[in-house]
Amino acid sequence: MTKRLAAKFLAVTLTAGIAQPANAEILSQIKNPDTFIYATIGDADSLDPAYAYDTASHQIIFQVYEQLVMFKGSSVKEYIPMLAEVVPTKANGGISADGMTYTFKIRKGVKFHDGAELTPEDIKYSLMRFMLQDRAGGPSALLLEPIGGVPSTRDDKGNTTLDFKKLEEHIKIDGQKLTIHLAKPYAPFLSVLAMWTYTVNKKWAAAHGDWDGTETTWKKYNNPKKENSYFFEHMNGTGAFMFEGWDKTTKQISLTRHENYWRAPAKLKRIVIKKVDEFATRRLLLDRGDVDSAYVSNQYEPQVAKIPGVKIAQVPVLDISAVFTFNFNINPAPNPYIGSGKLDGNGIPVDFFADKDVRLGFTYAYDQNVTVNDIYRGTAELCRGFIPTALPGYNPKQPVREFNLKKAEEHLRKAHGGKLWETGFRMVLPFNAGNDIRQTASNIFRKNLESLNPKFKVDVRPIQWSTLLSDESSFKLPMRYTAWLADFPDPHNFAFSYMHHNGAQIGRYRYHNPEADELVEKAVAEINPKKREQLYFDLTKIAYEDAPFIFGISTRQPLPLRDWVQGFYANPVIPDYFYFYPIEKSLGATTETKTRPKGGK
User: Fold this and answer.
1) What's the structural domain count of the chain?
2) Distances from the Cα of 341 to the Cαs of 256, 313, 349, 412, 548, in angstroms?
3) Does residue 181 lie within any of the structural domains?
4) Which residues constitute the domain of residue 410?
């Protein structure tokens, strides 16, 4: 990781000072002293760690399940051991000299929430299940690529092509040791493991109708419907918190403390995550102390900063945001987003964005400077591509298309042989309900497009998060404001997601350029930093030429916390900001805001 990355994302940590004994008087000032309540805008999509690929779901998963290793505090380049006893390195023999083999000694005495003891076989099963489930638009490629040497278990026609025995040979068990042999060099592998080796109980899974771990049955569980799995709404991990319940009517999930945790039990007894779409309601709950924290978009930060008893953590975010992504081949039926499904003024055809002039016209019609200066109040920065400004591979000299309604009109007049300008179009531009930034940005886009031609009609529509994700995975969305939070801190995560046709982001919008695929695969295997950087520069040029999406921005996230919240630290790759294990609620300590020194993240 470069100094540039470190300097950009100064980790913000709110920690307790010298602890003071809690007493009844102090606790009486704190609402629900043993429970942390967070009000957010996104409902979980699934609780299955092999299926979920959104931050709302992973905020829960991150508390209940554990990985082999984990990022140390606010760092994205230092690790601590979790289910492994030590972090493997070349120095301690855990990583081979060629970087192709990783060996972990699995910790003894770790208990699942049902009381069963963790075994190396559970970890191997979890790795295999994660890769073999491989649902469309899911996270499986994060491990399939480095371990199996392939981005998917299926070909482009949906046929399963993976060799089970060959994949299984890459993961070996010898007593308490688990060894992973990579299929190819993969520079960011340890950082992937730090986020994506959530471990489940093999016997518990099979007993509840999930995959039994055998070659003969795995295809039955490949690319499943989320509701068909017991894991969709049940959890059994080794983490500091246990799953208590998920009320799908109120969109509330609750967790309770794991008293038999292998480390000291968490300080909090209970966690409640509740969905509250309206900012005014979230602000009121925060003001009254009924919640300990709440999601607040950047534009509303000044309103919550004035609340007595509330402090603001500036959370570093390793992301690319405000990326309006276009669908090259929309799923036609049934589809509420495309009207008539024809270019007749009452809808759009499924190949609407396959026409490059449409994509260029839309690109010139959106002003990212408004996003940065007005919506984000100058706290975000423009990106010249799909890689965040802080990562290696970002090209600060890459040309971009700037807001220009005249050029937008020129391209849209040519689109679809001139018919688009004559007949007009009508389409839905969806955003996730409660996300005020995306609503504002989408409405700006709508106004700009409709100003070009009175026959252009865009309906900006709120959609519940879980529904939006399902429709996106079904290729129904014509376009939307997308964002990508790093799964691991490396440019490959963004390159694969936005430029490879199997990528979890662009794959949902059916963009496919074989040259881009090849560059993505070359770049992740390249160990020479300069050569690797040039490959990402070349890939960004293709993104500019093909225009499958509008180049986005890099952001930061204000996070309001009641002043009794102690022990919080921010890491740019933690899903939805929180790792609850070290957090407590106390007024008997002095809150300090600390940042790590420049040059060391």
Assistant:
1) 3
2) 48, 46, 5, 19, 21
3) yes
4) 319-554
